[in-house]
Amino acid sequence: MNTYKTYTERAKQHPNACARSLFELMERKQTNLSVAVDVTKKSELLSIADAVGPYVCVLKTHIDIVEDFDQDLVQQLQALAEKHDFLIFEDRKFADIGNTVKHQYAHGVYKIASWAHITNAHTVPGEGIIKGLGEVGLPLGRGLLLLAEMSSKGALTYGTYTSESVEMARRNKDFVFGFIAQHKMNEYDDEDFVVMAPGVGLDVKGDGLGQQYRTPHQVVVESGCDVIIVGRGIYGNPDQVEYQAKRYRDAGWAAYQERVRASSSSA
Ligand code: 5BU
Description:
Layout: H1 7-13, H2 17-29, E1 33-36, H3 42-52, E2 58-61, H4 71-84, E3 87-94, H5 98-106, E4 118-121, H6 128-137, E5 143-147, H7 160-170, E6 176-180, E7 194-197, H8 216-222, E8 227-230, H9 232-235, H10 241-266
Parallel strand pairs: 1-2, 1-8, 2-3, 3-4, 4-5, 5-6, 6-7, 7-8
Helix pairs in contact: 1-2, 3-4, 5-6, 8-10
């Protein structure tokens, strides 16, 4: 089934509050771009977040790589999220038993649940990981993405692993609103998982460490993903951050519009 609704239509119908806010924000700002800001200095993270802020729906962090992390960083990130109207996604990739991830999500140095609207988890430990994270995240209105497919070469996330991950999401729709994946994951007319896809680049095909890049057109039009995640393609050259953010925003949005047009003309 290859019909695609607009983000606005999906916002109106989606049962998950986090997905609704994301779709509304994407349409309001006309962007399906998420920037992955993988830098190790607080000042650099904040300055890139401020520069790309107007062009993104989601800012993706790896907070544990920031050498001078402090609570002020979190407050400033939250202020930028307000200023520019974006959601914060901590790409924590939780991967332990429910009881452990609960603490990793709520406590420790980072207190991720207190500031990240979205986080993600591997499904390798089984469904307890979703239950554990949900005990912390659900009361705060947070949303969870499951890692159904990775972008890197040789990843073991395929076949039964991926389909069982989708089954886990189906059983936990109150908290899980989608996937990190490389393809659209919906199988039924009444389901609407958000797919955020990393491994997006317009200029190179890989990074020599296993990453594999596809274009926004391949990701959004051909594979039906909803949000493109771009890291080094945007912040790799410090002089071009804003220019590249705009370029990827335009490419991602054009791909989305093409998909909607193609879908309405074939309906
Ligand atoms: P890049 O610089 O565009 O290659 O960064 C990609 C980001 O997405 C980086 O933060 C990764 O940790 C993240 N990522 C990924 O590349 N592939 C995956 O399958 C998952 C996350 Br899950």
